[in-house]
Write a structure and sequence with these properties.
- By secondary structure, the protein is an alpha+beta fold.
- It has one domain: VC0802-like.
- Helices cover about 20% and strands about 40% of the residues.
- The chain has helices spanning about 70-80, 100-110, and strands spanning about 1-15, 25, 30-35, 50-60, 85-90, 95-100.
- It has a six-stranded antiparallel beta sheet.
- It is globular, with a radius of gyration of 15 Å.
- The termini are close together.
Length: about 110
C-alpha cells in the first residue's frame, strides 16, 4: 500500500509554470508551487527551492468522502518529529518527506496504514 519513489524531488516557488516536466503544480492567489525532480531544477528559475524530498504514495484508491486518513498519517509522523508536505489527487494521497526521514517514516507508516 505504501510506495516510495526513487526520484528525489524539489519543492519550488516560480513566477510562472515553465515548459518542463513536473509531478504537481499548485497555483493559488499568492504563488505557484511546483513539485519536480531535482534533476530538472536547472531548467527553471525558481524564486525559492527546497531540495531533497522523496515521494511516498499510498496505493489505495480513496473516495473523496474518506475521513481521517491524512490526519492519522500526519499525527503519527508528527509524534516522531517528521515534517511532511501533503498532496492529494482525485483518488490518491501522497506525502513528501525529506530523504533523511524516509526510512523512519516508512517504518511508522507500515504500522499505521494496514
Amino acid at each position: 500500500m505504501i510506495e516510495v519513489s526513487d526520484e528525489v524531488f524539489a519543492v519550488v516557488n516560480v513566477k510562472s509554470i515553465p515548459d518542463v516536466d513536473f509531478f504537481a503544480a499548485v497555483r493559488d492567489f499568492e504563488e505557484i508551487t511546483l513539485i519536480m525532480g531535482e534533476d530538472s531544477l536547472e531548467k527553471v528559475r525558481p524564486l525559492k527551492a527546497e531540495k531533497g524530498y522523496r515521494l511516498i504514495t499510498f496505493k489505495a484508491a480513496m473516495s473523496l468522502d474518506t475521513v481521517g486518513f491524512i490526519a492519522k498519517i500526519s499525527s503519527a509522523l508528527a509524534e516522531n518529529q517528521i515534517p511532511i508536505l501533503v498532496l492529494s489527487s482525485y483518488s490518491t494521497d501522497h506525502i513528501l518527506v525529506k530523504e533523511e526521514f524516509v526510512g523512519k517514516a516508512v517504518e511508522i507508516l507500515e504500522k499505521v496504514v494496514e
